[in-house]
Structures are given as C-alpha cells and as structure tokens.
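Study both lines:
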Amino acid sequence: MTPNSDPTVQPVPASVVQQVDAADTTLHNPKTAVLSIGSNLGNRLESLQSAVDALADTPGLKVMAVSPVYETEPWGVAPDSQPSYFNAVVVVRTTLPPGSLLERGHAIEEALERVREERWGPRPIDVDIVAYQGVVSDDPQLTLPHPRAHERAFVLVPWRDVDPAAEVPGHGSVEELLAELGTEGITARPDLELSLHA
C-alpha cells in the first residue's frame, strides 16, 4: 500500500478516470455529487435515514444537503403491485472518484439488505448516483448522469428543493425538465424529515 492511499477507494474504470481528470486535473479537490435514495419495504423512513447516516460516515465525503421526503408511486411497474416509495435526494462533497462512490452506495444497499432479484423490484433501500460534478460518461458500470434521471420526477422534484438552479448534464435544467414531465404521483410528506447530523 502506498503512503497516503485510501483503503476505501476501489479501482475505477479507466474511462471514468479520464472523464474526471478532464473535468478537473486535481482529484484532491472535493467534487459535488447528487444521490437519489428511495425505499418501499420495511420502515421506509428509517432506511432513508440509515442511508444518509452511512453516507455521512463515509471517509472523504461530507453530506451538504438532504431534501424533503416525498411519497411516490413505484416506477416502471403495474399500479398497486408494490408499496409506494419514500424518496429523497442527498447532495454531497467528496474526494472519492465516481467508481468509489458507486461502491459505497452498493455497500450501503447491501448493509440494509437490498437484494437485486428483479428490475424495478421492491427494495428496502436504493442508492443511485444521479450526477457527479457535471461529468458525462457512458461507462456501463456507471453512466453519468444517471441515464433516466431526466425523466424521473421523483428524482427531479427533491433535487430542485435542494438546488433550484440544478441542471442534468446534457438534458437541461431540472426546472425545465419538470415543466415538461409534471409532478403527478409525487406527494410531499412534510410530516417526515431526514436529519443531517453535523
């Protein structure tokens, strides 16, 4: 192990490294990333809070903002075939490259017992990287921005809450995308709150 190496950093696909290097030649500077979290099994609010806490405990990462919680209908499945989701967006500053951030997201899902059995299946927690410092990458391991973020109101609505001027790289502003998509099926839950521990 080389001096100052970070044991939490996993190998990153070369194409992602090139994209990040192109965005900023110094990986030591923290980057802003946007993550979407969702849950529709078990204690949904508790699962979201556990994901926020786990992100906050990640070396090389600082949680900057957590959106309000929204209740949304499951995406891509038949109506009433699954429980509704609780969704939120987390904005972080991190020195982790995208691939390592992805590994951390998967580790959080695993710790909260997510099982990937079916596409768009119900899950106790889902952690997706929506955007990373404006990086655009078509790497199959981690496509940036998230390939469906621009068409998912359950991501865009809470993202707009924490960053009204947000843009989905290559697709335009979140505000404009929502004007086209609409917000049907996205219900604010002001009675629920995720805490951001200092």
